[in-house]
Amino acid sequence: MSTLLESYAAGRWFRAADEGEPLLDAATGEEVARISSRGLDVAAMVRYAKETGGPAVRSLTFHERAALLKELAKHLLERKEELYALSVRTGATSRDTAIDVDGGIGTLFSYSSKGVRELPNDTVYLDGGLERLGKGGTFAGQHIYTSRPGVAVQINAFNFPVWGMLEKLAPAFLAGLPTIVKPASQTAYLAERAVRLIIDSGILPEGSLQLLAGSAGGLLDELTVQDSVAFTGSAHTAGILRRHPNVLDGGVVLGVEADSLNCSILGPDVRADDPEFDLFIKGVVTEMTVKAGQKCTAIRRVLVPSSMAAQVEEALAARLAKVTVGDPRNPDVRMGALAGLAQREEVRKAVEALRASADVVFGDPAGGPLLDGDATRGAFMTPLVLRARPGATEPHDVEPFGPVSTVLTYDGLDEAVALAARGRGSLVASVATHDPEVARSVVLGLAPWHGRVLVLDRDDAKESTGHGSPLPTLVHGGPGRAGGGEELGGIRGVLHHMQRTAVQASPDLLTAVTGRWTTGAARRESDVHPFRKSLAELRIGDTIASEPRTVTPADIEHFAEFTGDTFYAHTDPEAAARNPLFGGIVAHGYLVVSLAAGLFVDPAPGPVLANFGVDSLRFLTPVKAGDSIAVTLTVKQITPRRSADYGEVRWDAVVTNQEGQPVATYDVLTLVAKTWDGDRS
Ligand code: NDP
Predict the structure, then answer these.
(1) Which CATH number is 263-468's, of 3.90.79.10, 3.30.300.30, 3.30.300.20, 3.40.309.10?
(2) pTM, to two decimals
(3) Which residues have C-beta atoms less than 6 Å from ligand 1?
(4) 523-673: CATH homologous superfamily?
(5) Dihedral (CA of 295, 232, 429, 493) sign
(6) Which of 296, 313, 399, 487 is catalytic?
(7) Alpha-helical regions (H) of 340-408
(8) ipTM
(9) What confidence tens digit (pLDDT) does each residue in 627-636 have?
(10) Closest CA to ligand 1's atom 15
(11) Which of 195, 229, 508, 618 has the fewest CB atoms inside 10 Å of its own CB, making it the most exposed?
């Protein structure tokens, strides 16, 4: 008998007392492993996540969590062959496995680097700017995101056992949440191996990842108001979860990614000899055959102008005829097996349903030829293309989760968009067009119904990641039938797991709460210029207030000549006088900013290493010759970089004129050494 998969629960590997259910190799029908969660104490898992995992993750800053994700990604990358060897048993070719395994590891890398670049080295994230709430400037509001003291449960589909887990783990971990993974039983042996690699590495804090192998049992019964469930799978199961009392009334947040009848549209501008025609055909064939069409993002509906239908079908048939189907261990096989015989039965039933209003135009519903493999033991299925009859409804309702697509014809863009919308909300749509007007009207028509839209043409084709690839930096999810959930999307995916709170307080206390200097809070001036202080010595609120400097006509003329910026408002008195905003010559905004730098810098070599930019620069009041400007520079935020001898310092800069009016406001971004031994004087 093969191995019984274990769950990783409350700090140890748990083995059920019964024999478990067999899990079969998708291509050979041999038993790979057994699965059971009988006797598993799910309540203890939830407690352990909250009492051990959560506090451990939340004690780390975003940057520390990001660093662990990177270490984990490297660890898995070095051991990915182990995962490849098991993945073949799910029916996956090595191309399919790359999407699952390498795609999952890539997501960890991506979140790690985004975490460092876009989140502070802190445990609180500021959302938007300061809202002034009182005229005197003593009362202000700031939105913040904090970690929830709950657990992130993920319930995953069978098709991406590794990616599906890691793409949910990475943002939840960055958000400070422990995770309990419940993989789909069918392919749980691969998810279990990946979890074992992670647990054995000891990289993630104990309790931050647990595995439930087998049926979910009463897991949802144990969840409460700070917990969340991210589900991927069938609309049927999503419905059961949505009706769970803890979701309905108990405050458990449920995110769903379920059935999606994604479409790809051939633009009305595209002729058979245009590059976009080929790109369109290739896209459809790729989506039908990668993972044998078992992808939540696969193209189920192929929307083409009526006049192009015959040519599209012919081109699809020509390409699909070359797709070799069989045991994925054979390197000549391009398309492997479905996840199991039961799954194939589901797809066959879906095809039968589709045939009520569509005819098969390519492939054999009873099964075409295999390169190798036995179709009675392995869940093989050859690709099928159907053509919808006029008024067909089934292609907009039935999701064949396999290598099956239906061609639908349209006349005019409005009809194309209307047909796409009949999917009642999908994860992704694509359109092949090189016409800017078609691109705009189709994308704007599709957008309310889709989480992602790909516009494919000759210019982006080479670099395009394709219709079916969710990317860590882009939103994955879709409205309506697709579940209404949203995952990934860079830092958006992290914030989904966190609580946003509006904090109202005085500037000093807001500074204390957020760790970021707030306009109106106390400034600290001292004899030591802040540019002479290393990161270790600098404090939030350290300030330098400069002496004033008068801006002369010569300054403005010189700047215009020197830079070549001879825009009339700086050089032509008569024209400038007619300008309704200025009424005369004004100094260049960049001159003001440059003079301000001259006013605040301390020039000698010191701990300030570089200026790497400015944020939020606004010119508020025009500066005229004779005006006198001064600048106040205040340390706003200090972010040490983990793997460098320096860190980032964000300075609040306010330039004012002789009347105290703000002339320019911005943040100056510098790199400052962590320590500095040089002379302070
Ligand atoms: P299911 O909805 O049956 O299963 C998905 C996950 O939910 C599995 O981990 C499953 O566990 C779990 N689950 C099932 N019942 C419950 C329950 N009552 N409480 C808690 N968890 C539960 O979907 P499948 O993965 O089997 O796929 C079936 C169909 O779903 C596909 O044919 C396809 O149509 C669609 N699908 C859609 C996807 C999408 O993103 N659009 C992705 C994958 C599938 P277990 O495996 O142990 O039963």
Answers:
(1) 3.40.309.10
(2) 0.92
(3) 155-159, 182, 184-186, 215-216, 232-234, 237, 240, 257-260, 296, 346, 399, 401
(4) Hotdog Thioesterase (3.10.129.10)
(5) negative
(6) 296
(7) 341-354
(8) 0.92
(9) 999 999 999 9
(10) 237
(11) 618
